[in-house]
Amino acid sequence: MSERVAPISRYTRRIASALRRAAEGEQSHLTLSGLVLLLGPKAHRLLLLVVSLFNMIPGPPGYGGTIAWTTCAIAVAMLLGRPIRLPGIIGNRRLKLDMLIKASDQVVKVAAVLARLSRPRLRFLTGAAANLPYALLVILVSVVMSLPIPFINAIPNVGLCIIAFSMLNRDGIGVIVGLGATFLGLMLAGGIIVGAYHLGLAAVTALA
């Protein structure tokens, strides 16, 4: 009997295979809209995993904000039950294919390891009924992560990544862990925002 492959392993292999097919066309870059077409305009959960993983890759100035708004756009499409269509200002952003392929290969390896700890359980937290609260949470977190404040998106994004991984692997326990990480990240982000506000206020007062 062949070994059963975890859902998340199938999904991550699908991502890696799709990117390799794109590279076979001799193109060096892939737009975010092209990525949506490659993986499927209705593959909301899969694309949320992909963009949360991309947000962990260092990029040029503005990269983090672009990925955050892409995440938000995907979540809005999920909320409305519509295919994903990115606005041109986001969708035309180009990413290096070789970087994406290397990242996807690492994701496949990591997913294979994590799949040993994660398994389908508490499926009511990962079913279709979870799409509404899931999308609303992602929209909220994406707006926070889009703020041009250093380090504000690190922990919330890790939480979103865990949730996306667990949703695809039908692991409700993982979703709970991801929610904890996300809310912790939002609390820290709130502290950073309040601290930045008070520093700016102190600077204005000192100059007055």
Structure, described:
- It contains nine helices and two strands; from the N terminus they run αβααααβαααα.
- It has 208 residues and is an all-alpha fold.
- The protein has one domain.
- A two-stranded antiparallel sheet has the order 1-2.
- α1 (7-23) runs antiparallel to α6, α3 packs antiparallel against α8 (154-169) and α4 (63-80) packs antiparallel against α7.
- Keywords: Membrane, Transmembrane, Transmembrane helix.
- The chain crosses the membrane at residues 66-84, 124-145, 151-168, 175-199.
Write the layout of secondary structure elements.
Layout: H1 7-23, E1 29-31, H2 32-39, H3 44-54, H4 63-80, H5 88-91, E2 94-96, H6 97-114, H7 131-145, H8 154-169, H9 172-207
Antiparallel strand pairs: 1-2
Helix pairs in contact: 1-6, 1-8, 3-4, 3-8, 4-7, 8-9
Pfam family, one: ExoD
Transmembrane segments: 66-84, 124-145, 151-168, 175-199
InterPro entries: ExoD
Low-confidence stretches: none
The assigned structural class equals mainly alpha
Give the biggest sheet. Answer: 2 strands, antiparallel
Overall pLDDT level: 85
- Residue share in β-strands: under 5%
Labels describing this entry:
9 helices; mainly alpha; two-stranded antiparallel ribbon; about 210 residues
